[in-house]
Amino acid sequence: MPVRLDVEVTARPSAGVEAVAYFVVSESLTNIAKHARATCAEVSVRTVGGLLSIRVVDDGVGGAGEKHGSGLRGLRQRVAAVDGVLTLDSPVGRGTSIEVELPCE
């Protein structure tokens, strides 16, 4: 599956935030490959103000949710551990979007 990557990061975040960002992208792409039946995905990582903004989007079947396994729940916990926010949008039949904002400092 092709993955489009767009990165515009002006400052390196702390090691803890960097690790969480890695897991967000890695787990999201793993979930897409396993469950989404997507034909493509996009990953965007950029710094906006004092935040590291991550967005992972696919064109798959949607319907992702925390009740279907521990992957998304674990991501939400990792993000919260560094005072970040995770937003999931996954309407059935319309793909999935995971957006994460992590503090850069």
Describe the structure in your own words.
This protein has a 5-stranded mixed sheet with strand order 1-2-3-5-4, covered by helices on one side. By secondary structure, the chain is an alpha+beta fold. The longest helix has 22 residues, at 15-36. It has a single domain (3-103), classed as Histidine kinase-like ATPase, C-terminal domain (Heat Shock Protein 90, 2-Layer Sandwich). The protein is globular, with a radius of gyration of 13 Å. Strand 4 (85-89) and strand 5 form a beta hairpin. It has helices spanning 15-36, 71-81; strands at residues 3-8, 41-48, 51-58, 85-89, 96-103. The protein is built from 2 helices and 5 strands.
Structure keywords:
31% helix; 105 residues; globular; five-stranded mixed β-sheet; 2 helices; alpha+beta; 5 strands; Heat Shock Protein 90
Short description:
With 105 residues, the protein is of the alpha+beta class.
Give the secondary structure arrangement, pairings included.
Blueprint: E1 3-8, H1 15-36, E2 41-48, E3 51-58, H2 71-81, E4 85-89, E5 96-103
Distance between the termini: 34 Å
Mean pLDDT: 94
CATH topology: Heat Shock Protein 90
CATH homologous superfamily caption: Histidine kinase-like ATPase, C-terminal domain
Sum up the overall morphology in one term. Answer: globular
| Spatial extent as radius of gyration | 13 Å
Helical element count? 2
- Give the class-level CATH name: Alpha Beta
* Low-pLDDT segments: none
Order of the strands making up the biggest sheet: 1-2-3-5-4
Number of beta-strand segments: 5
CATH architecture: 2-Layer Sandwich
List the domain count as a whole number.
1
Overall helicity: 25-40%
